[in-house]
C-alpha cells in the first residue's frame, strides 16, 4: 500500500473528503518533494497539538523534502539555466524560513499578547537577491522590538528558527538586533555590508522592517556622501 494515500478510516461520517485532505496528517501523507512546500506543511502542523508538543517530529518530516530539493538544485542534469536554479532554491528556502518562523511562534508563544509577531525576519545577501545556491549560507537579519517581554518571546522564536534550519542542514549567518540598537547596527555593520536591494522582508512584524529600511537608506546615503568626499578630497 502506498503510504502517501489517505486511509478511509481517517474520514469521519459527514466529513468533506476535500477538507480531509487539508488536515495536517493528510498534508504530510501527500507531501512529496514536488507536491507541497515546507511553508504549507509547517502551517498545517502548527494546527496540530501533537506536533506543537513535539517539534522534532515536524523537523523530521521536513528533512527528506529539504534533501530532495537540495539534490535537485545540485544536479547539473536537470537542464535548468544558471539563473533558474538559484531562483528556485531561493524560493524553496523562503518557504522553509517562513514556515519555520510561523511554527516557532506557535510553539514558543502559546499565549501571544497580539496577533503581530514580535520579530521581523529579513533575507539578506544572496538570499535577499533571490540568487542563493544550495551551497551558500543563509544570511538572515532578526529584528526585535524594544519592549522587554516581547523581546524575550522574539528571542525564543528566532533561536528556534535558527536551530531548526541548522538541523535541516543549512548554514545560517545571522544578525540579531533590537529596535533600540537599529541605528547603531545599521551605521556600523549592515549599511557597509548590504545594499538596500539585498534586504527582503520574509516574515513577522512589518513595521520593524519598515523602520529598519528607513534607517538603512539614511545610512547608505551618508556612506555615499563620505565616499564622494574622499574622492574629491
Kindly describe this structure.
The protein has 233 residues and is α+β, with helices and mostly antiparallel strands. The chain has one domain (19-232): Beta Polymerase, domain 2 (2-Layer Sandwich). The chain has ten helices and four strands. It has a four-stranded mixed beta sheet with strand order 3-2-1-4, sandwiched between helices. The termini are far apart.
Order of neighbouring strands in the sheet with most strands: 3-2-1-4
Label the CATH architecture.
2-Layer Sandwich
CATH superfamily: Beta Polymerase, domain 2
Order of helices and strands: HHHHHHEHEHEHEH
Annotation field: number of helices: 10
Oligomer: single chain
Kindly give the count of domains: 1
Shape: flat
Cα gyration radius (Å): 20 Å
Report the strand count: 4
**Proportion in helices:** 55-70%
Give the gist of this structure.
The chain is 56% helix and 10% strand. By secondary structure, the protein is an alpha+beta fold.
Task: Please describe the structure with a list of short key phrases separated by commas or semicolons.
single chain; 233 residues; alpha+beta; four-stranded mixed beta sheet; disordered N terminus
Helices, strands, pairings?
Layout: H1 17-20, H2 24-29, H3 38-45, H4 49-52, H5 55-74, H6 84-108, E1 120-124, H7 125-128, E2 138-144, H8 148-167, E3 172-178, H9 182-193, E4 200-204, H10 206-232
Parallel strand pairs: 2-3
Antiparallel strand pairs: 1-2, 1-4
Helix pairs in contact: 3-5, 3-6, 5-6, 6-8, 9-10
